[in-house]
Amino acid sequence: MTITQDPTATATATATATTATTEARVPGDDQLRRLTTEQLDAFGAEMDAIRQRVLGQLGQEDADYIRKVVKAQRGFEVAGRALFYLPPAWPLAVAALSVSKILDNMEIGHNVMHGQYDWLGDPGLNSRMYDWDNVCPGEQWKYSHNYIHHTFTNILGKDRDIGYGVLRMDSDQKWHPYYLGNPVYALLLMVFFEWGVAMHDLEVENIVSGKRSLEDNKAIYPGLMRKIKRQALKDYVLFPALTGPLFPLTFAGNATANLIRNIWAFNIIFCGHFPAGVATFSEEECENESRGHWYYRQLLGSANITGGKLFHVMTGNLSHQIEHHLFPDLPARRYPEIAEEVREICDRYGIGYNEGPLGQQLLSVAKKICRFALPDKKSDLVPSFLRKPAAGTVTETSLAA
Asked: Where is the composition biased (Low complexity) (predicted)?
């Protein structure tokens, strides 16, 4: 397990002193609270209890909430599309459409596709039927995100969301001169985030390295191309054409709204996964993990962003990334109340609870992106053929002599 220093997430001595001496199943670093097998089981039981209690409480309020959000999202979209007919209102049109796309992708789409509202029996809010306003097909997203990422969260070599196959975001990722472009790649990924997400399953980095062939992607292409065509026609042909001579303004407005949504989603997601203090794990230490171990890994591999109620709604409540990773299929509107319990449990077990305001988490992520652009050893910046052998080093030349 690796972790970067974070004063808000450094674990303290446990408040529940225990005499258990069983060796911890999760080794952890010095600055992490190490839990014994018994503690992990007890921790898991407390998390399960929260989950079962909230499931038992789900009802009309939750149904009313998500339908209210859907109604608001549609209202913003209609307002945005309509305002494009009034050139002076172009900024308002872009703002309304941006809010619509953010709500659709984050508070509605992401959460509905996690199955958070399947219990309603509403086809429009069913994870198997819902698709979002995004070039990434819903079915593809549910595999790469719901299954791969949420099952193997922050396990190096298993969770491809660590750097998205493009960035170096952890010291255990071997450095290569390619990563000198880390800040540039991050900027491009932010601007074209929905496209990066759509291409994620193609595993381009594994094709380049020879671990995957183009043939392996054949099953992905049809669905991906259908979704790309549909989104492109909707935003860049159909709706601009409906405004007649205002086509260029509407085209630009739709592109701007997509850009704003991309930037917002990128920043919220990165602040929930990559600030200082977020841990990564090896495949070996996660073998045969218990339920409690799984919860522990989800907790240490996530971070929260503090803010007000409106802020949380606009993030899809992914500002409560810790709670989302602990309970991905519980309605996200429940995360704020759950967070209070999770924080209290973490305090009792002496486990760090990583949270901070958006600015703090963003700065932390930016520093990490820049830091991991560079090698861990300065000597790695020098090509191997230019490096001066250390004294006493046996080289091929000396052996030949």
From this structure: 8-21
The stretch 322-344 carries a mean pLDDT of: 98
Q: Which long-range contacts (CB under 8 A, 24 or more apart) does 240-245 make?
A: 243/84, 243/85
How many C-beta neighbours within 10 Å does residue 91 have? 11
Cα distance between residue 220 and residue 208, in whole Å = 18
Domain boundaries, given as residue ranges, for the chain: 2-13+24-69+148-371
CA distances to 93, 183, 193 from 77, in Å = 9, 33, 21
Mean pLDDT of the chain: 89
Of 318, 299, 339, nearest to 43 by C-alpha is 299
At residue 33, the pLDDT reads 54
Beta bridge partners of 2: 280
Q: What is the identity of the amino acid at 270?
A: F
Asked whether 342 and 324 are in contact (CB, 8 A), the reply is no
With 90 as the cut, is the pLDDT of residue 7 above it?
no
Confidence bin at 384 (pLDDT 50/70/90): low
Work out the number of other CB atoms within 10 angstroms of the CB of residue 328. 19
